[in-house]
Amino acid sequence: MHNKTVLSNGIRVISEDIDHVRSISIGIWVKCGSRYEDHATNGAAHFIEHMLFKGTKNRSAFEIASAIDSVGGMMNAFTGKELTSFYIKIPDYHLPMAVDLLADIFTNSCFDEKEIMKEQSVVLQEINMTEDSPDDYIHDYFDGVFWNGHPLGFPILGTRSLVASLNRKTLLSFFDARYGGDNLVLSAAGNLKHDEFVDLANKKFGSIPAGIIKPQTDKPVVSSKVAVFKKDLEQVHMIMGTLAPSTVSPERYSGFLLNAILGGSMSSRLFQEIREKRGLAYAIHSFVSPYMDAGILGIYAGTGEERVPVVINLILEELKRLRHELLTEKEMAQVKELIKGNFLLSMESTDSRMIRLAKSEISFGRHIPEDDVIASVDAVTAEDVRKLAFEMFKAGAISLAAMGRISEKDIALDSYEG
Question: Is 49 marked active-site?
């Protein structure tokens, strides 16, 4: 059963009671991420995520970690482009402790200046680690190219200079402005009772003020670009991408099918054509990253520099094929079963259910039943997919970013007519 209660300070408390499990996954979600930063604060949301584990008025950093370890639980957090989440999974009888711990780090964190200095070093090493992993760093590089100066293109970790310049005053100002009740969702899934969960939430999170800065930025405007980051690497890492349906777009299910058939699995067209049949790349896949008012469909490939033109041409041929040819009945049936199966299997986990509860509330303001998701996938037609592909993969709509020992002339898109 799904339930929702809004506290007096605006925090939305949502839960799903699953009485046949012995775990509970609980998360506090903030509508805040790198998208809602500017050139002076880029990296602040991610840095605050780190700082909330570095000690409160009631617990040291070690006590925060050991509180969860001592009950066999798990605690973590992540920062994205539009959301930040702090979450815990524990045995059901430790729910009061988990709520108390989440509330403590959220309302009583010290932001100690010595800890800030230490964590600056940690985050700088995290940036270095990303840049040392070209298959990771190419995503940040592509985002910066594709989103054309819009905050969606900002790196979640921030830049070295900005991270090094962060101080307690800046972090507290950013936190106080954005981590208010109207901007928060507290979600839980597992063996719990909603009324008891709400009582705990009121006691522990009720003191959070409601006022916040509304997290809004302009809708991004993008154009086709080609960019190269020259680096001495054994392979060329590249991403080709274009605009895709947003998180709330009615076309999002067509986008899921399109991505799955293109490069979303081992049986996908790109994987089979480029890796299995031709052996041109070890890693080749497509992905969809939807945001509130826009999305991106990207294609990643890592290959030898002499093979780059061939791989690009093969990808473009598949895009052209999707624009002009309908998927067969067999392909449609298989890709729908893939998406539905992945979705249903993910629902076996209280973690996934808690995450889905929160994201549905933040994006749509309501819970979307599993049967509605299945029905929406089944309702997509081959013509829906072709129409979306025709719009997404037209000439002048595709960008390409690459990293390695190549130049822009090696990755030109001029010949693509769609």
Answer: yes
In 3D space, the residue among 76, 69, 121 whose CA is nearest the CA of residue 102 turns out to be 76
Kindly report the length of the chain: 418
Q: What CATH code would you report for 2-205?
A: 3.30.830.10
Q: Are 263 and 270 in contact (CB under 8 A)?
A: yes
Q: What is the pLDDT of residues 293-311, one digit of tens each?
A: 999 999 999 999 999 999 9
Contact between 45 and 165 under an 8 Å Cβ cutoff? The reply is: no
Query: CA nearest 180: which of 212, 158, 148, 205?
Result: 212
The pTM for the full model equals 0.94
pLDDT given for residue 410 in this prediction: 82
Which H or E run contains 75? strand 74-79
pLDDT digits (tens, 9 = 90+) for 184-215: 999 999 999 999 999 999 999 999 999 777 76
Nearest to 393 by CA among 309, 293, 320, 301: 320
Alpha helices (H) in 266-307, listed in sequence order: 269-270
Q: How far is CA 179 from CA 48, 157, 316, 376, in A?
A: 11, 19, 43, 34
Q: Which fold has domain 226-411?
A: Cytochrome Bc1 Complex; Chain A, domain 1 (3.30.830)
Q: Residue 343 corresponds to which amino acid?
A: F
Q: Where do you find CATH 3.30.830.10 in the chain?
A: 2-205, 226-411
DSSP 10: S
Cβ–Cβ < 8 Å for 171, 55: no
Helices 308-324 and 252-263 pack at an angle, to 10 degrees, of: 140
Give the CA dihedral 247, 251, 252, 257, nearest 10 degrees: -170
Question: Which residues of the chain register pLDDT less than 70?
Answer: 215
CA distance 268 to 59: 49
Determine the pLDDT at residue 97. 97
Helices 382-392, 252-263: axis angle to 10 degrees equals 80
d(CA 285, CA 135): 12
For residue 251, the one-letter residue type is: E
Catalytic residue (choose from 37, 49, 119, 318): 49
| Residue appearing with tokens 């940036």 | 127
SS3 of residue 135 by DSSP: helix
Give residue for tokens 């402005």: 177
